[in-house]
């Protein structure tokens, strides 16, 4: 490669493309080659879509030549393999969809294509986005580019690893309980979960419909704002997408931090947060305070119940959403069964992996007669209490700051037989999903072992601009984004 | 309707705390969820699901009596749009994806007993 084009941000690549210092075809070739070369190390992609990508690159080069190109035109990107792309097989990290080729684009993909972006391939993930380590993929685990013996986080682990390893300048992920922010933190990149409804879910294969959101994983905050500019907006195909006007999010990238009011979650007495994470997080908060951010310590009394509520609500919705994988309409079908029920059971037993089975059963149990009130209904009430907590703190604050995760990345295999240990990785992130709020993770340091640590900011609904303002101001005053793994 | 509830199961959640799911209960749940499990899987999931249920039982400590449930943050109700006919060409493509189809219909194994 020109190595000169690795670890360049979208805005840098776009400027090179506009100045004709490179072409989209050249960049696409370079990123495809790098992804091929690193495939055995990271396993970030389930599939590279070389032919489709080069075709899109050629078209983008024409648009660039004509001088009509926008900021994403000709820029290569990766897409998590849970977001439909017309004519390209989708797996969701599962065996059960085998052979399914969606005949339509998700709205997010259609918007990227319309902007002239080039999709390099389909990124690896935990099966149906259920997991926090990307070890639950039927296509093998993803390895953290900072240390290949460690997990990249999940479920958008392929997206985070690809961006961290320079296999894509940026990527799309999806976030139901932290699935963009947590892997972003583990891999040292920026990850944004927009406000619920900000980005259309049309064509995003459903896990938990009241929580799922598509969002970007990028090398810096500016790129996240550029991608949200493209992705956001109402879509009549998603009845839950919001009609609110979409501002130009790059306008928030001023570098100015004075006057921002941040609530810092009180962490005293919270066991289970790694001291190294605490040190990095506190240093980040001090830096912000020094730059003029008003800091106030806050509590979210029901956050501690959020994870429990999440692991009732998300599996309940999943048990319903995943009922469609029954061997009738698409994908795998178990053959030679005596009747239709045996066919359903055989297909699902064979096609789903352990974590998906666990969550479907958990959801089925929580929704079943005799348990509905104690589990599902109670969880919805906890959700209300948690949302009230956020409403209350936001009456006098712009953002809430927490570590993104309680620990840095853990080793592959360390938590695969310990669901609760795995679930705790989402302790700080699920709140934003339950309350529908936007959240961002930005790199804020490294552990002694050299693994990245992330800081999360959460803002009131539709105030992604506040996240960008704070995150960009912080990024401008630190050098974390210039560090890359040696891979 | 099939239900998971047995006479023994009618206790509320706080009482069931620390009570392990049996492989038989897991079998029942997996049947409702239409999941074929091996006996090893039933054993394994019984333990794992019990530990998850133990963890989530912590919400029973909260007083939730006068709290309105929140199913969806948008709290949207009846989002209407015009019911307009649109042409689409995906029908055949979708049918081509079916494991088994005949004359525009999905084929499945026997549903009604002889």
Describe the overall structure.
The complex is a heterodimer of chains A (487) and B (114). By secondary structure, chain A is an alpha/beta fold. Among the domains of chain A are: 8-259, Amidase signature (AS) domain (Amidase signature (AS) enzymes, Alpha-Beta Complex), CATH 3.90.1300; 304-380, no CATH class. Helix content of chain A is 38%, strand content 13%. Chain A is built from 15 helices and eleven strands. Chain A has helices at 10-18, 24-42, 50-65, 107-114, 157-164, 181-187, 221-231, 275-290, 303-321, 340-351, 354-367, 373-394, 419-423, 430-435, 464-476, and strands at residues 45-48, 76-80, 118-123, 170-175, 190-193, 213-218, 261-265, 294-298, 399-403, 439-446, 452-458. In chain A, α8 links the parallel β7 (261-265) and β8. Chain A is globular, with a radius of gyration of 21 Å. The mean pLDDT of chain A is 96. Chain B is mainly alpha-helical and 114 residues long. Chain B has a domain at 7-61: Orthogonal Bundle (Histone, subunit A). Chain B contains four helices and two strands; from the N terminus they run ααααββ. Chain B has helices at residues 13-16, 23-32, 39-56, 91-96; strands at 101-102, 105-106. In chain B, 18% of the residues are buried. The model of chain B is unreliable at 1-18 (pLDDT under 50). Classes of the chains: A alpha/beta (487), B mainly alpha (114).
